[in-house]
Amino acid sequence: MKQDEKLRLGWTSLGVSILALAMKYLAWKFSGSSALLSDALETIINVAAALGALWALTIAGRPADENHTYGHDKAEYLSAVTEAVLVVLTAIGIAFVAWKSWWAPPTDLTPWAGVAFNALGGVINLVWGLVLVRQGRSRRSPALVANGRHVISDVWTTVALVIGVSLIPITGYARLDSILSGLVAINVLRVGFQMIRHSIAGLMDEAPDSETLQTIRTVISEHATGALEAHDLRVRTAGSVSFIEFHLVVPGKMTVDDAHAICDHVEHALRRHIGPALIHIHVEPEEKAKQNGVPVLS
């Protein structure tokens, strides 16, 4: 995905978040429910997250420079970490709302209009959250994936609240409102910690999943014709860019030109299969073979 396409997704995400927030705000105003207020508070974070993702995508799209010779892609992880921290803080705020509501439960709830507005906001979030996660995963954008996961987590909260708030006038149990707020806080906190874990993994250069690693090994094995083996493979990702390093063992009498041609062939094949990548290949003579690396298919 080109940078301008990512930015269009970011701007659309901001607009969708503001629209959903308007629906959640109307839901609270029409109902007076603290549970629906909690949902609106969570949606405020969606707006903040969309702004953060826009900033991150703008920074990440800048080319490498003298101060950032590997590019700016990790800005997306910074945005995701910031969003996760905001989510955790929101959970604490929602828990406070639930606590106040428990000791002073509402006595004049009018939930039906509020439930309708809340459900509409949930539908908007569901559709857009699925789009963000799908596009973020296919384009390897941590900022878009984090934003999408947060939006989808808001949908499950909305479903629970629509059911729960509708039961309050039926059961006559006013404290159900505060219980629902507390459950929202727990769910938001869970999502926040998951987001922190995922973002920190990126900042700490965690290796990609086993499927991606196997793809890289297979590509090297099938396209390094003329070499003997590859070993000491190391891979990390930063946003949409992969960083790949390995040693390539070639026959000792092979010319520099021939070894260079093999490296070029492997690099082109890797980029075709996994997308943008910075690749460093250290060529070694055959006596450096370790016999436990990636075998090259003749």
From TrEMBL:
UniProt keywords, alphabetically: Membrane, Transmembrane, Transmembrane helix, Transport
Pfam families: Cation_efflux, ZT_dimer
GO molecular function: cadmium ion transmembrane transporter activity; ferrous iron transmembrane transporter activity; zinc efflux antiporter activity
Membrane-topology descriptor: Multi-pass membrane protein
Top-rank taxon: Bacteria
Coiled coil: none
Compartments where located: Membrane
GO cellular component: plasma membrane
Domain Cation efflux protein cytoplasmic: 208-286
Major localization listed first in the record, in broad terms: membrane
GO BP term, pick one: intracellular zinc ion homeostasis
Limits of the Cation efflux protein transmembrane domain: 12-204
Family: Belongs to the cation diffusion facilitator (CDF) transporter (TC 2.A.4) family.
Name under which the protein is recorded: Cation transporter
Natural source organism: Kozakia baliensis
